[in-house]
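CORE FACILITY INTAKE
Project code: CF-77B
Contact: R.S. (postdoc)
Sample description: multi-component assembly, two entities in total
Requested service: structural model of the whole complex
Turnaround: standard
Below are the sequence entries exactly as provided by the requester. Do not edit them.
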Amino acid sequence: MISPEILRRYPWFAGLSEQVLKAIALISEEKETKQGEVLFEEGDPAKCLILVVEGEVDLTFEGEDSERYVVDTVIAGQPFCWSSLVEPYQETSTAVVRSPGKLVCINGSQLRDLCDADFEVGYLLMLQVAKVLRQRLLGARLQLIASAVGPA
Amino acid sequence: MISPEILRRYPWFAGLSEQVLKAIALISEEKETKQGEVLFEEGDPAKCLILVVEGEVDLTFEGEDSERYVVDTVIAGQPFCWSSLVEPYQETSTAVVRSPGKLVCINGSQLRDLCDADFEVGYLLMLQVAKVLRQRLLGARLQLIASAVGPA
């Protein structure tokens, strides 16, 4: 578990009660990362919603040419691995640590249990997930326009 | 308003009670479409969540070269304009009718009011929105890989 204080710093959790933040802190763990570490691969079961506390993480995926493309870089203060909250709970990219730091990993299955038990929590979190997805989608479209994507 | 029967056919609304379906039907309208009709443009306020009942709609956006690119084609049974439920409620693409048919337009602001009044409705709908966004994101990434996107 982690301190609920860590979660309170993230706009993601705005609107959640103290009690809910404590419940989320109970199912969360801190993790130190090393440069180049592969956190998960495309197609893996999406086990955790992850917040970047320090450092940066590249979201990449493999092209038909077997090259690895960076589709997004997640910086401190941002979440990733929203796939842990959206069926079929499967990673859509491979996450590679770009610069070392610290993550908070929230158990996805237990977080979904919290959402199912308290729909206000579920609604607030899914609104945040949708905002992240919106940003990722706009980013992907900008890359499409610019055709500026290059091998990682 | 429309008949709640129309909504019941969509997997999107699975899990919602009869009462909620009736409330959504009350804030919905049917609309006939014509080929080539522009339903909304990128940057417009996103006013409605839209279900395609018949026909097809291209989601397009303008590249830096002023060409118009198709990023997705929405077919019968699918929803679009999820932006009406996600801040800042602004269209991220321009929707052009590819083949004429019929749409159901659900008032976005009133639908958000329903979500705020009943978090279970909000949670269920936002889970569906996230699934649509997931599909759009995977589609955009596939286009990125293939660099197969061409002018509309």
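Facility notes:
- Strands of chain B lie at 28-32, 38-40, 48-62, 68-74, 79-80, 94-107.
- Chain B touches chain A through 35 residues (CB under 8 Å).
Invoice: internal transfer
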